[in-house]
Write the structure tokens for this entry.
Amino acid sequence: MCFNNHKIAYLCGEECDVLVPFYDVEASCGLPTEQGDVPPEMIRVPGGDFDGLNTYTISVKGDSMVGVGIFDGDVLLIEKTFQLRNRDIIYVSIDGEWMVKNYYMDDLGRHWLVPSNPKYNPTQITEDMNIYIGGKVKYNLTLHGESRENIMNSISEYLQQETEPKPEPPRIPTQEEVEAALVYASDKIKGIRYWLGACRVLMDCGFIKDGDYETFCNLVKYVLPDHKYLPVKREVRRMAVECFSKPFETWTDATAPVHGEYYDHYHIAGEAMLEKLPKNLYKTPTKAPTNSHQLPLSSQNNKSSH
């Protein structure tokens, strides 16, 4: 008798050198069917930690064991044994009906046959049942092409994620980054109060403590001592009302204390800062973190050039 060899996909490179019986019956993984007395066919399987005298193969039917990778039509290698351990997958007959299930003994000493599919219920083994253990599943000899494909897809997706650049965590900008942003924004600022847009951005990212307009004004004077419109604390703070007192990203013309082109002057200053600062800025909507930047007084007073 010629066995349908394409039904069993052997691992590449392994030699099939062990003869074992194959019972052309279906052990149910859903609806039990009787095994019957069918003469076995001898087939060759890859050698391993078993011998042909104490093993045989069967095919399975149903979907109750898909959770452990046993599918309808799979060919299983069964090892004859009466010594079972919890969670062994066994080939067992109950009142003449053969099936493949997980074996489990609970803390109360009760014995169970448990499917690996939530749509099926476990079966408790009781004394009135006629039980015969055909053995435990040693190997599933059927390799599933779709499963291999899914595995390779998962590996490819993982490797792709590993090679993709990961976004940098939010952080407070450095002194050098802030100075460069102020220089860049300075060309767009045409009034003393318009610095509020730049000030709000630095407060939002934690570089300057929220409400500390004095430090901001000193910072601008330190970086841009010759700018035509150097900020003045009372004038900048005076405009910090309505939405201008809140995070820059929430500013709108409709909720601002000024509108139209006047609003645009304030907003352009903040946009210029954001354009030059890193994109992964720390955001503190209510207050700056404890490590908010404070410009050293010595630096404020000893700036020679920028």
